[in-house]
Write a structure and sequence with these properties.
This protein folds into 2 domains: 31 residues, no CATH class; 113 residues, SoxY domain (Immunoglobulin-like, Sandwich). It is 24% helix and 37% strand. The strands form 2 sheets. Strands 1, 3, 5, 6, 8 and 9 form a 6-stranded mixed sheet that branches. A hairpin with a 2-residue loop joins β8 and β9. The longest helix has 16 residues.
């Protein structure tokens, strides 16, 4: 039997989730549907609409820590956190990137809603964090000046 590494890992994750938790909800979030249309957008507004639809976002309750100046746009360190309960996901966008939607991190149950990562920014732009908690959307943004772009 010839099985790819990717299929093996997916199968292992599936088996482990069922064996350890026995809950289908975690399994569903582990294989959550990726909003492909938003990821493929090349403009900020359509990408944002693809992510949140017509939902309203509230300012506040989200802490976005990003540098004011990034010497290398290929590795911009950011941290996103919130004190909100029941966080479903955190998404990160760069409004002037060739593909504005950068990433989404899913959370389940009582997990701590905190993300620390490095992103690529093509040029100086706003980094936007969106948090979905209890079915509501919260946002925060930070301007980052890039001296050498990281996206082509």
């Amino acid at each position: 039997m010839n099985i790819s590494k990717r299929k093996f890992i997916q199968g292992s994750l599936y088996s482990g989730v069922i064996a350890v938790l026995g809950k289908a909800t975690l399994l569903q979030s582990a294989f959550a549907e990726w909003p492909t249309a938003a990821f493929d957008e090349t403009e900020y507004e359509p990408a944002l609409k693809g992510l949140i639809g017509d939902s309203e976002m509230q300012e506040g309750n989200v802490t976005l820590d990003a540098p004011e100046i990034a010497e290398n746009g290929a590795t911009v360190p950011i941290k996103v956190s919130t004190d909100l309960d029941n966080v479903e996901w955190i998404s990160i966008l760069g409004d002037k990137n060739p593909r504005p939607w950068i990433s989404r991190f899913y959370f389940h149950g009582k997990s701590k809603p905190f993300v620390s990562t490095r992103i690529k920014l093509r040029e100086s732009s706003n980094v936007v964090a969106i948090v979905k908690a209890d079915g509501k959307l919260y946002t925060s943004k930070s301007a980052v000046k890039v001296t050498a772009g990281g996206c082509v």
